Amino acid sequence: MTWDILLFAVVLSIDSFSAAFAMGFRRFSAQRAFSFAFSSAFAEGGATALGFLLGRIAKDLIVNYDHWVAFALLVSVGAHMCWEAYHHDPDDTTEAEDPRTHSFLKILFVSTVTSIDSLGVGVTLGLASKPIATYAIAIATAAFISTYLGLGLAKRMPAAFGSRLEIVGGAVLIALGFKMLSI
């Protein structure tokens, strides 16, 4: 596994970790935790593959400036992650204080929303003609693991930790965007 694949997988799983961390303040059964982790993995891997297909279709249309499109997508996704982390209010705990569990529909919704970054990265991978199966499997596996970690660590760490991780992840995506300019 190359460093690029590992880096993409880890960075894209930060959203899954952060969402699980935020939702982990409510009780989760083992079955619900598995459902959340599986849902996150499927959404992240699927969004990456869908983005890849869109990128491959668009590649022939924008072959002369595809590296600039990849750069713009990664930098904007990274900047958006940083912006969301910066504007997140860790003191907003009204939902986290509720002892009920989250519904399965909410888990599916959160998994889908957190995979939007993977769609943009998938487009970039398609434009760069990267091997999608390896990336999608690595991203899905990282999302599965990070969701479990987020749920497990929610009770042990302050809420601001998730926002800091998201800023680091956004910065890494921005750096990968600059790397795309050299391809």
Describe this structure in words.
By secondary structure, this protein is an all-alpha fold. The chain is built from seven helices and no strands. The protein has helices at residues 3-23, 30-59, 66-86, 104-114, 116-127, 132-153, 160-180. The chain is globular, with a radius of gyration of 16 Å. The model is unreliable at 93-100 (pLDDT under 50).
List the helices and strands and how they pair.
Elements: H1 3-23, H2 30-59, H3 66-86, H4 104-114, H5 116-127, H6 132-153, H7 160-180
Helix pairs in contact: 1-6, 1-7, 2-4, 2-5, 2-6, 3-5, 3-7
Please trace the helix and strand order, writing H or E for each element: HHHHHHH
Main sheet characteristics: none
Distance between the termini: 19 Å
**Helicity level:** over 70%
Number of DSSP helices? 7
Short synopsis of the structure:
This protein has 183 residues and is an all-alpha fold. The protein has 7 helices and no strands.
